[in-house]
């Protein structure tokens, strides 16, 4: 079992910045990928960015150049630095983790990011 706790969401004006953090705890051997997805009402959850243990990243085109994902593997913590935020970035951001063994996916409860125009 992996328990994910997110922090760092909130309200920010367009053009501003926020940093999200997510820490994993629980009974697991190791985590391979960690990252972030987001969801708005009536829409499917979409990829924002993920990063593997080796540091390989996958970043959505809509946030490239504005968002940066990083990870402290020994602490099972992932960060999302969000700059030049736009109103369309408003969403609930969910932390994601996939275990190395059996590739089981886990999700956090989500943290709301609101960008005002």
Topology (SSEs and partners):
Elements: E1 2-7, E2 10-13, E3 18-26, E4 31-39, E5 46-51, E6 57-59, E7 67-72, E8 77-82, E9 91-99, E10 105-107, E11 111-116
Parallel strand pairs: 2-11
Antiparallel strand pairs: 1-3, 3-8, 4-5, 4-9, 5-6, 7-8, 9-10, 9-11
Characteristic key phrases:
single chain; 117 residues; mainly beta; 7-stranded mixed sheet; 4-stranded antiparallel sheet; 57% strand
Helical proportion, percent range: under 10%
From the alpha-carbon coordinates, what is the Rg to the nearest angstrom? 14 Å
**Oligomer class:** single chain
User: Quick one: biggest sheet?
Assistant: 7 strands, mixed
Put simply, the count of helices is 0
**Average pLDDT, all residues:** 95
In N-to-C order, the SSE pattern is EEEEEEEEEEE
Number of strands: 11
Principal-axis shape equals: globular
Poorly predicted ranges (pLDDT <50, ≥5 residues)?
A: none
Q: Roughly how many Å apart are the termini?
A: 40 Å
Helix vs. strand class: mainly beta
Kindly estimate the percentage of residues that lie in beta strands according to DSSP: over 45%
Give an account of the 3D structure.
Helices cover 0% and strands 57% of the residues. With 117 residues, it is an all-beta fold. Strands 2, 4, 5, 6, 9, 10 and 11 form a seven-stranded mixed sheet that branches. It is globular and about 45 Å long. The relative contact order is 0.33.
Structure in a nutshell:
The protein is mainly beta. 0% of the residues lie in helices and 57% in strands.
């Amino acid at each position: 079992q992996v328990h994910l706790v997110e922090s760092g969401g909130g309200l920010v004006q367009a053009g501003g910045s926020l940093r999200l953090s997510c820490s994993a705890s629980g009974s697991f051997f190791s985590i391979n990928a960690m990252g972030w997805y987001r969801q708005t009402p009536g829409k499917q959850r979409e990829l924002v960015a993920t990063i593997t243990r080796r540091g390989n990243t996958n970043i959505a085109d809509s946030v490239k150049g504005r968002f940066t994902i990083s990870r402290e593997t020994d602490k099972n913590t992932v960060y999302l630095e969000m700059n030049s935020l736009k109103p369309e970035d408003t969403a609930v951001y969910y932390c994601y983790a996939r275990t190395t063994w059996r590739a089981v996916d886990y999700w956090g409860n989500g943290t709301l990011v609101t960008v005002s125009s």
